[in-house]
């Protein structure tokens, strides 16, 4: 009986130790982003004392509100990207969608059909932009579902194709339309909090509710974790993924509407590499590339962290070039950390 | 038992037909394109035009040669566009600072250092190549901007520098870029097809696990594919710099997608394990002719974006369909 | 005479080239635990997958409470009251226990919202039935494997199950956890559920089952009432007397000790493994899935890091940290899964065979096709590989020929120690014999060979010595003369000789 008893004891001990490590790693993974933000705040405040050209402190109330407002364009899209990545997919076409929806919105306000509507053309323009976003998302979703081609290739292609559509609209010229009512609406604020921030926060709450409280949201985790098991459990994986692509298309359109309502002019190259920022924010927030895990709140944290990084770097005198460099490196560093935290330890097969 | 064999045969036959269509569908489509373009514009097949297409494809082509190695080994490289911008800017800058004779090798070294870094991250650290090269795309872009101070880079004295021979010279009537591209293609083609290293690249891409089980140093092989790729990018940067003797620092932007399209068009599978340098050259030419054809027919360059999109999706779909034996995906 | 909860009649299931089930009939009565036994490849899993809706039978009929039914999918089977508890867990780590239990059937409120109250209440009830120590709100990722298995079982209880099928449920459980499982099974049985219990483990089967049925080579061999029988009788039924042992082992002249392993361990996968292999002998490793045999091979080949112990090749201590090290030390591994691990299916036969040494087969800077083809031809002949030409893609070959390519690949490396993991898995009977004969011939030529196998006849046919493993430890080592089917089966099932009456 002896070998068996030893086996039992050893087994229990190992289980116990593994669980402890597991919990520590989990805590580190989930809480990490907020710690990172605090680190950034400290770092840039201190570094700012030495490097900054201005006398202002790094983070005061006004600056913080501005931070949230500036986070909105990337942030709204990042919420959608979270769901896509939880599914185990990815969407590289969001930047092009962003630009195309802006073009539709701004241009449609000048269409002759709407000439007699006055300012009522505004909600129509918004609606058209949002519909455009959803249609683009639908295209991505259907291709991924029906052809079985991996989402990253499909959206890599649409990144190019949708951008082509943007150019086809107006060549290399910007598309602009100034409507002061629209601008006023876009720049309005409630108690000092501006529209983009409000929309970003509202979307965060809604998507959070979706992911934590609805069947669709909970299924997303199953689909990403083990697609076959999800299919066997009766979840209709294909339509599920299509819905999520439509959703991120909608959010990219919404982000575009929010941003361009106040800016009034879009260049055909706008939004290039937005997907990089969005993905970096989502991965930084703790969502895994392989799917099956991630949280909207952490993504929110990731977005703030990225925006804080941008502001911080600007505060200490770095230019756009440096920011691009740092963001790229951060993405890679996060990937590495993610991999290390997921190691199964000594018993791994070395392939 | 006989019923089974019949069933097996018909399934096999269907699989073979799909595979055949997948492999040659691109060529058929290309033939259709060529005929269409020729009918639309008679200048299309003129010697002048054809040579022009080949010459302007040379730069993209060089990069595609290197990316072929990366794709065959089962990875991606989205950083080649911004890496090329980097190479172009650096060599132009160094040309005036340390002279062309030194500028060229230094630029190659710097570019290949970047390639080595990516190779280390993807090969040794085993990080996801899509995300790593996406991040490097941005990082290298930032690096280039920082290096150039945001300005365009121009050679001070454009006449009389022998540096221009790479991009603008001709030898026996053939443009130098074409000669360089063809030579590079021949060398790399033989390297991939005939050496032990080339065999290892196919093994790693075809079945990385089996390659490891067979004693192939997978990490090192992947690492070297990125070094090769960066060498080709450096060459492309040299050609570009030499051609215009001045450049914006975003000259390479978006090239990575065209390169990928060319490689896919040439029949390489994005899943790894198949493709050849020769087929990539065909893919480069196909892409070049399509772009040219669209221009001659009066369509703008961005129409090509949409066309490339459709091509990529169709080509990869057919490849995936051929491998699983069914056209449509079985996902519920 | 009550109606069977579940009855299968004359089920035939074929795959290309293999007749996995040959007219099998089987039934489970309500409130009965019916054990299903058989060697690896006997057809147990296939039968249950047919029942569970994963495969469709080519012939035969399934009856649920004597109503003819078709199981179109796992979901369909479940809705008809037939639930399958898999070996591989299909849970989502990020979701809670409750969400996993009701995966795909989460109770809803308006607007697609989850009805948490109902969900947790129902889940709690099920967990209580199973006596589980964790709450429905626990995140599944934080549970131990045993608890995860409980969740898997809980999933089965969301419907009024008529029959529950357990497929090797105790593979990763400790003794304490097994007791809990058996309590649950007893409970279910008391509620009138018919239980099918698939397992290799004699002690468990004799503890829990009412009836035992045996499958061998895809056919039904007979049933025994547990209370009236014993382990030996069951073993006889499993093995049968028609075992072809005409190829008695011809012992070779043994050379020096080629491989010597002392106290080798790898975490929880295997512990304290010690054995020797001499030139000219074949040592067979036999045991259940999960016993640790393949993991030992992987460690010897440098694919896993040992946590303790030493390895000596020809008397010299060696450190093997990667397959490249292993190859240079003279160790070759023909892996378990020839398609995923042994071959690059997209490459041709010749290239596959020369892969480990392609860097040496050169003519100047280039690979010498002539040298490659020479090697291929040697083994093409020696191993009687049947392909029209070396240009055939490995993926197009039959299983037997594929295996020969892999074997040829490693023989061409002239190894001191050759490890072959599952030499004839999924290979037709004719080719099986060829490969067995080949292994004996290689031993006669002086190779030191380790064969890992899950097929008893195979192990007995090729091995000079047999090492029986159970749960990561070596239970017993037999010589060819000592080993019998009975004592071998008992050793690998965890039964130690002093327990046997």
Unreliable segments of 5+ consecutive residues of chain B = 1-7
Question: Would you count the extended β strands of chain B for me?
Answer: 4
SSE order of chain A, one letter for each helix or strand: HHHHHEHEEHHHHEHHH
Average pLDDT rating of chain B: 86
Gap from first CA to last CA of chain B:
32 Å
How many angstroms separate the termini of chain A?
37 Å
> Could you describe the largest sheet of chain B, including whether it forms a barrel?
2 strands, antiparallel
Shape of chain B: globular
- Gyration radius of chain A, rounded: 23 Å
In the CATH hierarchy, the architecture of chain A is Orthogonal Bundle
CATH topology of chain A, which one? Answer: ABC transporter involved in vitamin B12 uptake, BtuC
Structural class of chain A: mainly alpha
Strand order of the largest sheet of chain A: 1-4
Rg measurement of chain B, Å: 21 Å
Major sheet summary line of chain A: 2 strands, antiparallel
Number of helical runs of chain B?
13
**CATH classification class of chain A:** Mainly Alpha
Mean pLDDT of chain A: 85
Estimate what percentage of residues of chain A fall within beta strands.
under 5%
Would you kindly provide a written description of the structure presented here, covering whatever features stand out?
The complex is a heterotrimer of chains A (351), B (332) and C (501). Chain A is mostly helical and 351 residues long. Chain A has a single domain, classed as Orthogonal Bundle (ABC transporter involved in vitamin B12 uptake, BtuC). Chain A contains 13 helices and four strands. The radius of gyration of chain A is 23 Å and the shape is globular. The mean pLDDT of chain A is 85. With 332 residues, chain B is mainly alpha-helical. Chain B has a two-stranded antiparallel sheet. Chain B has a two-stranded antiparallel ribbon with strand order 2-3. In chain B, strand 2 (170-171) and strand 3 (174-175) form a beta hairpin. In chain C, a hairpin with a 2-residue loop joins strand 21 and strand 22 (473-479). Chain C has three domains: 6-239, 3-Layer(aba) Sandwich (Rossmann fold), CATH 3.40.50.300; 245-330 and 416-501, P-loop containing nucleotide triphosphate hydrolases (Rossmann fold, 3-Layer(aba) Sandwich); 338-414, no CATH class. The mean pLDDT of chain C is 86. The chains are: A mainly alpha (351), B mainly alpha (332), C alpha/beta (501). Chains in contact: A-B, A-C, B-C. Chains A and B meet through helix 4, helix 5, helix 11 and helix 13 of A and helix 5, helix 9 and helix 13 of B.
